[in-house]
Every structure is written in structure tokens, then in C-alpha cells.
Amino acid sequence: xxxxxxxxxxxxxxxxxxxxxxxxxxxxxxxxxxxxxxxxxxxxxxxxxxxxxxxxxxxxxxxxxxxxxxxxxxxxxxxxxxxxxxxxxxxxxxxxxxxxxxxxxxxxxxxxxxxxxxxxxxxxxxxxxxxxxxxxxxxxxxxxxxxxxxxxxxxxxxxxxxxxxxxxxxxxxxxxxxxxxxxxxxxxxxxxxxxxxxxxxxxxxxxxxxxxxxxxxxxxxxxxxxxxxxxxxxxxxxxxxxxxxxxxxxxxxxxxxxxxxxxxxxxxxxxxxxxxxxxxxxxxxxxxxxxxxxxxxxxxxxxxxxxxxxxxxxxxxxxxxxxxxxxxxxxxxxxxxxxxxxxxxxxxxxxxxxxxxxxxxxxxxxxxxxxxxxxxxxxxxxxxxxxxxxxxxxxxxxxxxxxxxxxxxxxxxxxxxxxxxxxxxxxxxxxxxxxxxxxxxxxxxxxxxxxxxxxxxxxxxxxxxxxxxxxxxxxxxxxxxxxxxxxxxxxxxxxxxxxxxxxxxxxxxxxxxxxxxxxxxxxxxxxxxxxxxxxxxxxxxxxxxxxxxxxxxxxxxxxxxxxxxxxxxxxxxxxxxxxxxxxxxxxxxxxxxxxxxxxxxxxxxxxxxxxxxxxxxxxxxxxxxxxxxxxxxxxxxxxxxxxxxxxxxxxxxxxxxxxx
Length: 660
Fold this sequence. Notes:
Blueprint: H1 56-61, E1 65-75, E2 80-85, E3 88-93, H2 96-101, H3 103-108, E4 114-123, E5 138-149, H4 159-164, H5 169-174, H6 176-179, H7 183-206, E6 210-211, E7 217-218, E8 229-231, E9 238-241, H8 246-254, E10 259-267, E11 279-288, H9 292-306, H10 310-313, E12 336-338, H11 339-346, E13 360-361, H12 363-366, E14 382-388, H13 397-410, E15 415-419, H14 434-444, E16 452-458, H15 460-480, E17 492-496, E18 501-503, E19 510-512, H16 527-530, E20 541-546, E21 549-556, H17 561-570, H18 579-585, E22 592-598, H19 599-606, H20 637-642
Parallel strand pairs: 3-5, 6-10, 12-17
Antiparallel strand pairs: 1-2, 1-4, 2-3, 4-5, 7-9, 8-9, 10-11, 11-22, 13-14, 14-16, 15-16, 17-20, 18-19, 20-21, 21-22
Helix pairs in contact: 7-9, 11-15, 13-15, 17-18
């Protein structure tokens, strides 16, 4: 075994004979790309293998190999070091002579330093294999070792420290480049990359779509979310960052592109929602000469093709495959549910169908009894309930009080009550006679001894929304206390037949449930001209829900300028704000529709991550701040003057308590 020494820089006590510099790369005619192109073809000057890809075949070959990576751990007085790259970890072993000769130098090398190690892989001694490592049966006997770049002695955290104690999210986001070194973050980013590659391949190569970039700098859009204004050098004139490519993709259909897609960056100022980002990514799709069935079929075929199947993902050159990455495939075709049924049975338009707990109407039964103490129900109120099987022993008074506080704060006018079945077969409320239990049993589909019945009364829409929230809160609480509720599966669901309009939260006007470019349901199109209660009109809007989260939404669009202008007038939106779109629709526009898949949310669910921030390389906090780069930041006065801006208040941001 060779006794070549490690590099001396930057440690003064290290031996003086570094490894020779790597040879210059040789440029050859590129091969035809295929899945079999070796990963190290582009990087062989430094390494022959990835740390996590060294295997027993390399042991049997008895050839020297080279690996590069970050120093993850030191063990047993420098006898064993763990080297890590994105593919995994590899144990490198130093003999007694190396540890003696290099003692001072070895002690100076900090964790997370970048190393290059050469040596011969060999099997670990009997009894020393580590089944938790992909390379746990072998180790690399060091021949040469070089520090390519040392890490500071005291980093904010290391990957090894994370394994011992979780690091808070503000620190992770401030030092994101360290956080991204962790195996789970590498896996998330690579799963996202793999999924996008498969989606692009399906749309472009198999379905005839054209990938078209659309502008980020646009004009203010009516009827949508809060936008980010962008100053221009024209006094008083501003761009707006595009909320989505909605109008551009419709104009591409007018232009005859026929089938468009784009991995689109979108911008919305939604800092009041901690689970949304000010900039996010969606797979944007639009097609001409289609109806709703065509769009839904396309999305199902797209997801079937792109699903991370084990036999495909295991062959990916850039993915650290393990058996836990084998995701159970969903059932195709996806079931469908109307918006009305979703709200009635689940209290939300994004039902989590991994568990039942359906909401039931018990209004006629409840009117005969006092379920809410001395508080009477108002005339016209409804009473609804769901049963949480086996939850009564877990949901004690403190949890029930927390739910009561939640309902009073967020759903004013809704009353809350809890019922359980006593050993004698009667219900827990003393005022209820014994026969009431049998009646309720038939209304809610059965009650067992340890079941908890959650009851709400009040205005119908608010009552259903409250129960939808309580259903999820109760399921989360029961699962945290060790009882399984949700099926371990990916449950997709199409929600269709949304109302086209809803009453505006402020004032007596109307707003769109989706956006103002959605076409009405063909059976309800005549109601647009009839006036009156616009909430009766259904729209050709469809959402795709996965495990209780919306992962896609789209619609069939209004294709005639006159109809579009009429809808804008109903919404009290000035048609001149979208004059360019109206002119396009008046230029011969084909029937068209589309959808956008929220990639951040979809990848988050597939990766089983806690937050969408865990599948985005450089996310913002809930307040829209970049803790790493300290953005947003102030601008110098010269720049403000150039863009005709004046700042009336400007204080430095306090990052000390800025969480995710």
C-alpha cells in the first residue's frame, strides 16, 4: 500500500508532498447520450467513483479508486472517517502508521472539509458491517488523501450534528448551502428534477406540446391575487410580476400554437399564508379544441408516465435510490366528486379521502334536543356531525377546549358540541333520552363505545367549513397520540362543477371562484344573461386534489370576446384592463382549456416532506424574506431617483425571530 501524504495546504504541520495536480481534461467527440453513459465521464480528473456507489464488485476488482466528498464524521481516534457526497457515505480507513505520521494534520481537518481520497476498497472485518449504509459491507483503505478545500472550524451546523439534534428552520434557511448537503434535501431536489424531466419528456415527445417561455414582466391583472409591482424608468409607470402565464397562454392558442406547456415561475404576494411562497413553480398547460374530459385525461396520463416507479427511479444516474423511495402507485383513473358533494361530505373543496369520517346532516334529530346547552339554534340553522372512530379516550378536555376556541375565533355563529356513547348505551349529554342514541346511530352510520361524535350547528356554509377544519384537526391529534387514521396511500380526486361566482367578502358584488376567464358550464350558460343570483351558475373549472391538498387547477376558457366582456362587467372589472386579450379573442379564437400543476406542492407530497420549503432550493420565509441573502433590502438613493421612487419609511428588517 502506498504511503503518499496528504496535501500540506493550509495546515502548516502537514507533510510537504501533496498529491500531484489532476491532469487536464481531454476533449473528445461526445458520445450518443444514453442511460448507460458513466457518471464519472465528466469528472474523472478528480474521482473514479461516487461515495455511495462503491460496491462489492469494486472490492473483487482489487483496483485503486478515487472518491471526493465532504468529511462527515471522524471515529475511533481517526481510524475511521466517513466521506459523504450526494449519493451516500463511505467509510475510509487509515492504518496505524498513517495515523501516527499524520497525527497533527488529521486533528486539524474540520468536518465538512472537501477531500479527495484514493485507495483500494475492501470488505469490512466480520461483525463490522453496517446494514444502515448502502456501502456498509466495505471500506476504502486509504493510500492517498488530499484536502481540496478546508471548512471553517466552527460552522453553524454540520450534517453530523443534524443527525443528533434537529436544527431550527431559521438557521437552516440562513445557511441554506449547508442545509442542502443533507441526504434528505439532496433526495428532495433530485426527485423534483427527475419528475420534471419525465413530465417534459411526456408532453414534448409523446403528446406533441411546444415549450414556450412567457414574460415575467407584465401589467397589473384584475381579479386576482395581490401582485408585486416593478418600477420602470417611465415616471408613474409600473410593471407587475406575472401571477401566472394565464393570458399569455390563451393568446398562444389564438396564435395557433395548439398545445403549449411551460415550467413557469409565478409571483403572488401572499405573505399571510405560511404554506405559500411569494414565488413558486407550476407546470402550465394549454390546449386548443378540447373539452374538460380531454384535459383530465391528459393529466392522468402525464402522472402515470411521470410517477416515480421503482424500476425507473432506481436506474436514474442522479438519484440516490433506496427501497424507501418506492412510492405506491395511485389508482387510475382518478375518482371525481362535485364541489357540492365535497363541501357536504367533507366540509372542504380539497377532501382528504384517505379516511372517511363523513359529515352527516342531523338537523331534524337535533332540533328535538338541546345539544348546545342553553344556546338556542337560530331559525334556518343546520346541524351537522361526523364520527371519529376510537377517538374519545384520546380527545380529553384540553383538546376539546382548544377546538371550541378555534370555532369561536374563526367561525363566529357556529356552535360546537361533543357526544360519546356511555356504557349503558345512552349518549353522554344528560338531557338526551336513551332512544336518542339509536336515532343518532342510524343518522351517522353507526357509533361504537369509544367513538367521538363532533357536532356543529349554525349557518350551513360556515357550519360545514368548521366541521371540515375540525375533521382534520381531530385526525391529526389522534394520529399524534399513536392511533392510525389515514391510509398510507396517494389518493387523487378530481373536484368538478364549482360555482362560477361567489359573493364578494366585502360589499354586495360578485367575485370569481377561479378566475374571470373561466367558461360557464354549458347547461348554465343561459343564466349569465338572466342576471339575479349568479351563484347558481356552475363553471367549467376542475381541481386535482391529492391527500387533501390542491395540486392542480384549471378550466375551459371563455373563447368569445363578447362573453368575456360581459363577465368582466358582472365583476365590475374594466374591460380595458385586458383589452389585448379581448382583441385576441375577437381575432378568431379556438375553443381551448388548460390546467396548471403546482410542482412545489406535488413534490412535497411525493417526497413526504413536512413543508414545501423542504423541496425548494432557496425558499423564502412565511414573511417573504430570504434570510441567507437578507432580501428584500434597501436601495441607494441614486437608484430610487432613477426609478422615480420615494420611500417614506425604511427600517432594517429584524431577522432574529423570522421563522419559516
